[in-house]
Amino acid sequence: MLKRSRPRSRAHSLRGRALLALLVMAGAVAIALTMPIRLGLDLRGGTQIVLETKSTETTEADREATDRTVEVLRGRIDALGVAEPTIVRSGENRVVVELPGVQDPKKAADVLGRTAQLTVHSVLGPGEPQGEAEGKAEGEAAAKDAETDDPETDDPKTDDAKAASGTDGERVLPDESGMPLRLKDATLTGQDVKGADARFDQQGGAGWHVTVDFKDAGSDRWAKVTGEAACHPAGDPQRRVAIVLDNKIISSPQVDPSVACGAGITGGSTQITGSFDDTEARDLALLIKGGALPVPVETIEQRTIGATLGDEAISAGAWAAVIGTALTGLFIIFVYRLMGVLATVALLCYGLIAYAGLAAIGATLTLPGLAGFVLAIGMAVDANVLVFERAREEQAARTRPSTRSSLTAGFRSAFSAIADSNITTLIAAALLFFLASGPVKGFGVTLGIGVLASMVSALVITRVLAEFAASRPSVFRRPHITGISTTGPVRDALLRRNPFLMRRPRRWLAASAVVLVVAGSGILVRGLDFGIEFTGGRLIEYSTATRVDADRARDALADAGFPRAVVQSSGDSDLSVRTEKLTNAEADTVTKAIGELGGETEKVRDELIGPSLGAELRKDALIALGLALAAQLTYLAVRFRLLFGTAAVGALAHDVVILVGVFAWLGKPIDGVFLAALLTVIGYSVNDSVVLFDRIRELLGGKDRKQSFAQLTNHAILQTLPRTVNTGMGAVLILASLAVLADDSLTDFALALLIGVGVGTYSSVFTASPLAIEMYDRGSGSRPTRRRGRSTEEKEKAEKKVPASRTERQEVP
């Protein structure tokens, strides 16, 4: 009865997993067909502006004030006519605005960034010239400072306010012609405005003007202020009414002689005239109608991506994914034969599940996110390789095994290592999501979704397909086609020779130290080239009709007033200009200078990072790096022991310094994309250490526990090295596809990961393992014995561990 119940239970479990796999795939297909994924601006083109609200003397820039700012900005954006805009609050005092299709951010930034505080004032008479007013105000302020000795009075903003203001709320501002006017405190504000429209007066010849309609209470105040002004004779400055927008007089007309003293202008409306063109009139009406911002805002980040660049990035990323997946699939099919074919099918299912997961949560796919999607394909191979290698070991360890039973044991034995390695990657993805900014945050989301999808594809879909295939009679009679009936040539060669790699662990540590010093010296000798995310400034990339020499462009920009601009050329007709913070008007000057050299010039990328945001991102990067190392140490210490956690984190620090140092020697930028690559390398490097330490832990509790810790570690290295090599090959094929085919901005990302994969694979074996051995020997108070050769007993054990042959074994039911 027991023999019959076991096949039945296996059949039931297989049906259950198959049903689960079908449900997952059906749900993924349904989501993919009905919920299109949202592309980021770096893929579809457009402008992103990040605004930061600033506190004033009367209003604090808290969450409530920022929410009110969002509503005002939403009205202004709707009036601009941008299709599918996005405006959301980020944190307490930041607003993120995305404007798809907007290639010239100047107009949008001007409209969004203005406070648009509208006020109406009575004119008290001509004011003193600005220089005299400022001198008088500064003299009064200095006298007051001498009396009070208050350090806050040294604030230049306070001095400017005093220079422009008089007593009892009075102020002096220049009118349209530049003549200073002394203004009374505001009689009306933007809250009294009901609406505003831009109109063109064809009959009167006044041209474009703005008609302002007031609310009921505002109508009465407007009649009062115009009635008071009408009491003064024509030509008297006091007969004028000043309309002020953001401390600038935009119109100060005389009240018409037909208006009686004290009666004023009734009807609740007025006209703002001036030398407006149609665009200026519409923008002014938009600002007045939208209302004033409750608090001032400052643009701290601005990114503009050309539509053609986004299309090229999508095409290149798609080709990288297709070719990378194809190469990875061919590799695992070559190594694991039938099981490799089934794993490749599961990889395709992974792609569909990951896409559906991103669409289901409403994630935005950015360019780094697309790279994360492709990179997760290589990571999805890791779980399959772990299972198949453990199945090979189970097949070799049993006298008359079956393929299906070996697969079942392989999935069971590999589960802990798969879970641990994926959790460490999820830690890196979570840190990117919470501490990164802009498109790099999208990389964290995509990487996290990809890791979860890879676990589903490997532990559910691959298992269903593999167990179903292994139970077929044709496969049962031909075990060699499964790819797991033998241990493989690499494992056979290693176990046959049985090299004692950890005989002298200090030599490996010394070699690691030499590499660390050579690479790390680049940080001191060459220094780090921080990107604008960390320094602040502006980066503009151009595509020119003819190739422009970087030196000529540098000289032209110096003549235009930008001697410190950093100019770099890439490709046949691409040129990038990096400077300190530029205004939009200065950016236009730079574009004009480049256009004169290169003919027809297209701006394909424009990024502006404020200095305050750059300092914040630098701080967040250091915090993310420290938290990544601390989180990995904590997790490994809990899952294994503190010794293993310390050794793994020591190897991680080794990898981080080498990767940063290599980029310093190469002169590559240290930016947000590099930070994403660095944290990914940390997660990936820990994967190798987790698999190795998981095997050491298993050997410590097995029959070989009487051997020395160095010998056990050496055995674990030899047993897991095939998995490490095969997984590394899968990742290298994917990353090589990204480096060759993806967008130029991802070339450094792929390069960093390629270096990180190589260094991480080395350090997990030849840095983490020797470090663990040294700490174990010191902790136990023993000193490892040095042997020049292996004893006869060790050789006999090594021979016993080599499988009898790599020929196929006859399976039994």
Automatic annotation (TrEMBL):
<protein>
    <recommendedName>
        <fullName>Multifunctional fusion protein</fullName>
    </recommendedName>
</protein>
<feature type="transmembrane region" description="Helical">
    <location>
        <begin position="643"/>
        <end position="666"/>
    </location>
</feature>
<dbReference type="Pfam" id="PF22599">
    <property type="entry name" value="SecDF_P1_head"/>
</dbReference>
<dbReference type="InterPro" id="IPR005791">
    <property type="entry name" value="SecD"/>
</dbReference>
<feature type="transmembrane region" description="Helical">
    <location>
        <begin position="621"/>
        <end position="638"/>
    </location>
</feature>
<dbReference type="Pfam" id="PF07549">
    <property type="entry name" value="Sec_GG"/>
</dbReference>
<comment type="subunit">
    <text>Forms a complex with SecF. Part of the essential Sec protein translocation apparatus which comprises SecA, SecYEG and auxiliary proteins SecDF. Other proteins may also be involved.</text>
</comment>
<feature type="transmembrane region" description="Helical">
    <location>
        <begin position="725"/>
        <end position="743"/>
    </location>
</feature>
<feature type="domain" description="SecDF P1 head subdomain">
    <location>
        <begin position="173"/>
        <end position="295"/>
    </location>
</feature>
<feature type="transmembrane region" description="Helical">
    <location>
        <begin position="316"/>
        <end position="336"/>
    </location>
</feature>
<dbReference type="InterPro" id="IPR048634">
    <property type="entry name" value="SecD_SecF_C"/>
</dbReference>
<comment type="function">
    <text>Part of the Sec protein translocase complex. Interacts with the SecYEG preprotein conducting channel. SecDF uses the proton motive force (PMF) to complete protein translocation after the ATP-dependent function of SecA.</text>
</comment>
<feature type="compositionally biased region" description="Basic and acidic residues">
    <location>
        <begin position="790"/>
        <end position="813"/>
    </location>
</feature>
<dbReference type="Pfam" id="PF02355">
    <property type="entry name" value="SecD_SecF_C"/>
</dbReference>
<keyword id="KW-0813">Transport</keyword>
<dbReference type="InterPro" id="IPR054384">
    <property type="entry name" value="SecDF_P1_head"/>
</dbReference>
<feature type="transmembrane region" description="Helical">
    <location>
        <begin position="508"/>
        <end position="528"/>
    </location>
</feature>
<feature type="transmembrane region" description="Helical">
    <location>
        <begin position="442"/>
        <end position="466"/>
    </location>
</feature>
<comment type="subunit">
    <text>Forms a complex with SecD. Part of the essential Sec protein translocation apparatus which comprises SecA, SecYEG and auxiliary proteins SecDF. Other proteins may also be involved.</text>
</comment>
<dbReference type="InterPro" id="IPR048631">
    <property type="entry name" value="SecD_1st"/>
</dbReference>
<keyword id="KW-0811">Translocation</keyword>
<dbReference type="Pfam" id="PF21760">
    <property type="entry name" value="SecD_1st"/>
</dbReference>
<feature type="transmembrane region" description="Helical">
    <location>
        <begin position="672"/>
        <end position="693"/>
    </location>
</feature>
<keyword id="KW-1133">Transmembrane helix</keyword>
<feature type="transmembrane region" description="Helical">
    <location>
        <begin position="749"/>
        <end position="773"/>
    </location>
</feature>
<feature type="domain" description="Protein export membrane protein SecD/SecF C-terminal">
    <location>
        <begin position="297"/>
        <end position="466"/>
    </location>
</feature>
<dbReference type="InterPro" id="IPR022813">
    <property type="entry name" value="SecD/SecF_arch_bac"/>
</dbReference>
<comment type="similarity">
    <text>Belongs to the SecD/SecF family. SecD subfamily.</text>
</comment>
<dbReference type="InterPro" id="IPR055344">
    <property type="entry name" value="SecD_SecF_C_bact"/>
</dbReference>
<keyword id="KW-0812">Transmembrane</keyword>
<feature type="transmembrane region" description="Helical">
    <location>
        <begin position="409"/>
        <end position="436"/>
    </location>
</feature>
<comment type="similarity">
    <text>Belongs to the SecD/SecF family. SecF subfamily.</text>
</comment>
<feature type="region of interest" description="Disordered">
    <location>
        <begin position="121"/>
        <end position="181"/>
    </location>
</feature>
<keyword id="KW-0653">Protein transport</keyword>
<feature type="transmembrane region" description="Helical">
    <location>
        <begin position="369"/>
        <end position="388"/>
    </location>
</feature>
<feature type="compositionally biased region" description="Basic and acidic residues">
    <location>
        <begin position="154"/>
        <end position="174"/>
    </location>
</feature>
<dbReference type="InterPro" id="IPR022645">
    <property type="entry name" value="SecD/SecF_bac"/>
</dbReference>
<feature type="domain" description="Protein translocase subunit SecDF P1">
    <location>
        <begin position="67"/>
        <end position="123"/>
    </location>
</feature>
<feature type="domain" description="Protein export membrane protein SecD/SecF C-terminal">
    <location>
        <begin position="591"/>
        <end position="776"/>
    </location>
</feature>
<feature type="region of interest" description="Disordered">
    <location>
        <begin position="777"/>
        <end position="813"/>
    </location>
</feature>
<feature type="transmembrane region" description="Helical">
    <location>
        <begin position="341"/>
        <end position="363"/>
    </location>
</feature>
<feature type="compositionally biased region" description="Basic and acidic residues">
    <location>
        <begin position="133"/>
        <end position="146"/>
    </location>
</feature>
